[in-house]
Structure to design on (369 residues):
């Protein structure tokens, strides 16, 4: 039987291994603008395919020496696209589940800790831009902001010879379901959240100045209220800063989710002061953020900048407090889809009965540039 589709896991592995494949996104341009698969080509064939026509696929020129994977929003229109291309002679498969299913695709990149005392693995959820981290040395590891299934972190840790001993969150997330409790249950590691009164499940609270260790590496907590009131960054000496959703490589955290206008205003002022604390740190420190607004490539290159580079790239960081607050609140992006339901689940620690892929669909929308 002729093959007609490919699952997300297989395409993920093909890209991670550098196998030749052409990915053809057939969605409308507006949908692609929000999120796309790294390295994919685009042709807006959606209207034609929906009306039973080949449209631009009738004449499109693609490499003949590799399979083509067609992509749409939910994996239906891409079936029609793949059929058109097969009739024209290509080995063409539709991505099962489309971009909704691609939400769980991932890759990773590594950074070596100073003195070769261990590594930081940046785990990139390609389909949503969520960035989580394993910090490991001397056989132990800490996981920060896990957003993928526990097996991803367990397998990565095992490959490094690490046992996961600590699982940390930088804050209660609104764009994705936290996998921290699931991971803690599976590996028996201690679960840490910033001190707050929102989470209704057992955890160990983290406060300003607390130090957590894995092997010879330590993380020091910095309370950086603003994106949420409990938001906390973790400092790895003078080398790097795990900034969660407080500071990104090209923007800052939004202060408005699950907040009234008055609360968002208050949080915006908190965020300004928190950012000033971070900017006072050594300018050569690396910023390791909790999200990215572009799909991470399968290239093994960490998404990172120094504090000095981030400051140069983000205009908001050059404003005084009043101007910062005014500009920030005037440029809030649309809220992440289903954020209220996601926050509720992350506060209770419950796993949804409905499909998490459907619940988490869409880009993260956490940053203000």
């Amino acid at each position: 039987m002729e093959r007609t589709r490919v699952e997300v896991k297989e395409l993920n592995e093909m890209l991670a291994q550098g196998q030749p494949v052409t990915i053809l996104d057939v969605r409308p341009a507006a949908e692609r603008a929000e999120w796309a698969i790294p390295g994919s080509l685009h042709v807006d064939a959606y209207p034609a395919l929906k009306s039973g026509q080949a449209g631009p696929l009738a004449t499109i020129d693609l490499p003949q020496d590799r399979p083509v994977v067609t992509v749409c929003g939910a994996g239906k229109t891409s079936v029609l696209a793949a059929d058109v291309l097969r009739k024209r002679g290509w080995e063409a498969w539709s991505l099962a589940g489309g971009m909704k299913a691609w939400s769980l695709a991932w890759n990773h990149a590594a950074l070596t800790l100073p003195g070769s005392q261990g590594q930081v693995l940046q785990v990139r959820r390609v389909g949503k831009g969520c960035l989580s981290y394993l910090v490991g040395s001397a056989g132990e590891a800490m996981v920060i902001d896990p957003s993928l299934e526990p097996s991803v972190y367990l397998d990565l840790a095992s490959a490094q010879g690490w046992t996961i001993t600590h699982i940390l969150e930088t804050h209660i997330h609104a764009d994705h379901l936290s996998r921290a409790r699931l991971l803690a249950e599976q590996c028996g590691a201690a679960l840490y959240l910033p001190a707050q009164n929102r989470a209704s499940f057992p955890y160990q609270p983290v406060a300003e100045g607390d130090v957590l260790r894995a092997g010879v590496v330590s993380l020091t907590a910095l309370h950086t209220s603003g994106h949420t009131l409990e938001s906390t960054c973790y400092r790895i000496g003078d080398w790097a800063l795990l900034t969660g959703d407080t500071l990104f490589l090209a923007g800052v955290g939004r202060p408005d989710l699950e907040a009234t206008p008055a609360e968002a205003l208050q949080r915006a002022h908190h965020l300004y002061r928190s950012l000033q604390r971070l900017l006072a740190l050594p300018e050569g420190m690396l910023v390791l953020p909790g999200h990215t607004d572009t799909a991470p490539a399968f290239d093994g290159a960490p998404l990172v900048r120094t504090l000095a580079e981030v400051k140069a790239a983000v205009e908001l960081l050059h404003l005084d407090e009043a101007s910062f607050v005014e500009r920030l609140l005037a440029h809030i992006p649309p809220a992440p889809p289903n954020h209220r339901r996601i926050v509720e689940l992350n506060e209770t620690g419950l796993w949804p009965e409905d499909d998490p892929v459907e619940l988490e669909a869409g880009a993260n929308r956490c940053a203000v540039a």
In short: Residues 29 and 44 are 6 Å apart (CA to CA).
